[in-house]
Amino acid sequence: MNGKKTLKQILPILLCILVGLLFGFFVLLLTNREEAFNGFRTILFGGFSGGIRGVGNVLYYATPVMMVGLGISLGFKAGVFNIGGPGQFVIGGFLATYFAINLPFEGPMRWILPIIFAAVGGAVWASIAGILKAYFKVNVIISTILLNYIAMYLVNYMIKHTIYDSSTNKALPVPKASQLPTAGLEKLFEGSSVNIGFFIAVIFAVITYILLTKTNKGYEIVATGFNPNASKYLGMNEKFNTILTMIISGALIGIGGALMYLASSGKSISVVDSLAAEGFNGIPVALLAFNNPLGVILSSVFIGYITVGGFYMQSYRFVPEIVDIIIAVILYFSAFSLLISQNLDKIVLVLSRFFKKKAGEK
Amino acid sequence: MGTIAFVLQQTLIFFIPLLLVALGAMFSERGGVLNIGLEGIMIFGAFCGLLFINAFHGTITPQLLLILGLIVSMLGGMLFSLPHAFASITLKADQTISGTALNLFAPAFCIFTARVVQNVQQIGFKNDYRIDKVPILSNIPLIGEIFFQKTYLTTFIGIALFISSWIIINKSRFGLRLRASGENPHAVDSAGIDVIKMRYAGVLISGALGGLGGLVYVIPTTTTFSSTVSGYGFLALAVLIFGQWRPGRIALAALFFALMKTIAASYSGIPILSQLAIPDSIYKMIPYIATLLMLMITSKSSKSPSSAGIPYNKNDR
């Protein structure tokens, strides 16, 4: 990728972020004029607002949404809208928690195996939608929406009959031995919940990138998304590719669930009738990155960054939901950022003429 | 009251909002614009309607207030769908992204506003909109029990809107032009009709029905609104596809799902089912599994509008 092309892709996104932040500032001004500046500064400083602990938490928040974002972006690349993040995420989270509690031995396998089971669980769950699409032509958007709810009720049922903690109405906490190692990160980022999960996610982002850009199968997946008829004509196995896409996508999202619930923060799955929010939060992460796996690393860290900023903003009595508003606005503008980037040359030309004219007047 | 009447009465509570929002999605997609943002539109519409209802509660009779609240929620939904229309029609942007942005924006905005205004995110309201007995009509056996006892005005509004939607999309000149804009926009354009305007109309109607569906969903099911409609906007999309983008089939699909949902939610009140001792969670899964199975049988021939999701560009033919 050459520099100019990268700049052309990144510049519009930066513009979108600027617009989103300005919109957020405007809302803050409307709601509380005196503290608006302080509040806005906190969002801008984001993860740094809480010192080193805040930085650690940025990485912690970015981890699960990065995995979900990867899975969803892979689907988009293949022309499949996998909206089943919540289902695949919670299946992965449940299997990881279950095996983390029940594995009978010690050592690093206590957290590695649960991650693998989570990947398999997410893959199997997502493959249902893939099979339904390939052999019964069931629209993936609708099947994954329905599978989200089935997964949610299924996991609630399974938790209640296996690893249920009735005092908290949650799954039992993951024992210390099964938590993801912090590998000294807890000392580097004191007080935060960061662990090696973040780096695991980054590795998967790189793997996904290589898969899509450097392998034949990855090329087929992208080609099928780009033009299904042409790839069929060229003899690519469309059915198999659809199922394979869903399998990889689901595995990545399932791992996201594992990394979330195996984290040392000790958060466990609640038995409630509502879909896992992380599964949907991966959608803006994927879209902001234009479905580029390496871009997903940046977009998920960005979202982690301003989420932590929103958390610290509460000290100025602002409501943290402002962060979601800002992300929504950024996402909205990114929808037509392609338009901006296509006309970037024109915009630059007009601007440079304008400034030249001004300089000439002087 | 008989079990059947009880089940059908409950079914209506799930059926009407699902029907309205799915019909909204139909208007948008038949015109050629995907509207994945209906979840957000429902939330925003319900929010606007509830704010209005709470502001004027007690000043006029409940039923009149409800009607005005429903109109406000429609206007709110239309207003909220406007950015989606602008992005996907005028700017030819990615329709999935802008729809997702709406879904993200609505709950955040409503929670934010609620907390700024009243410190808590839940918006409470007093439900005095239920009509216990419609005079005379409620005495008809069965039908009276189902439709005219413990009912809501919204049921009849929903049915009326379904009938008018069916007529508009299938029998009116506007409907024909809208459908053509979603199938073959270039042909529409060459006939001298403004595709852009038709598509805006489609999205705005979907906004109105989505906003309305939001309030219609919230009023009978809860008394505290916390900026969620429990995924009904997504389910409505499922109903739309299940219903093959046709109003009659959409109604059947919504009815099927609502009936399943009712049985799942109130099985303990149905003597035969409560004796079976099947776990609660399994019952709750049934509507979704049943819909999925139905889709396996019916999806082979999809009748999706062929230009849905593709921005209209005059220049490419």
Descriptive notes:
The complex is a heterodimer of chains A (362) and B (317). Chain A is mainly alpha-helical. Chain A has a domain at 66-309. Chain A has 16 helices and 2 strands. Chain A has helices at 3-31, 33-45, 51-77, 85-102, 109-136, 140-161, 185-188, 197-214, 216-226, 228-233, 238-261, 277-288, 293-313, 322-335, 337-342, 344-361, and strands spanning 164-165, 170-171. In chain A, strand 1 and strand 2 form a beta hairpin. In chain B, helix 1 (3-30) runs parallel beside helix 6 (153-171) and helix 3 (62-90) crosses helix 4 (95-118). Chain B has helices spanning 3-30, 38-56, 62-90, 95-118, 143-148, 153-171, 173-183, 185-190, 195-221, 232-242, 247-265, 271-274, 280-298; strands spanning 123-124, 131-133, 149-151, 224-225. With 317 residues, chain B is mainly alpha-helical. Chain B has one domain (3-239). Classes of the chains: A mainly alpha (362), B mainly alpha (317). Chains A and B meet through helix 6, helix 12 and helix 14 of A and helix 3, helix 4, helix 10 and helix 13 of B.
Keywords:
heterodimer, A: 362 residues, mainly alpha, 2 strands, 75% helix, globular, B: 317 residues, two-stranded antiparallel ribbon, two-stranded antiparallel sheet, 4 strands
What's the quick description here?
The complex is a heterodimer of chains A (362) and B (317). Chain A has 362 residues and is an all-alpha fold. Chain A has helices at residues 3-31, 33-45, 51-77, 85-102, 109-136, 140-161, 185-188, 197-214, 216-226, 228-233, 238-261, 277-288, 293-313, 322-335, 337-342, 344-361; strands spanning 164-165, 170-171.
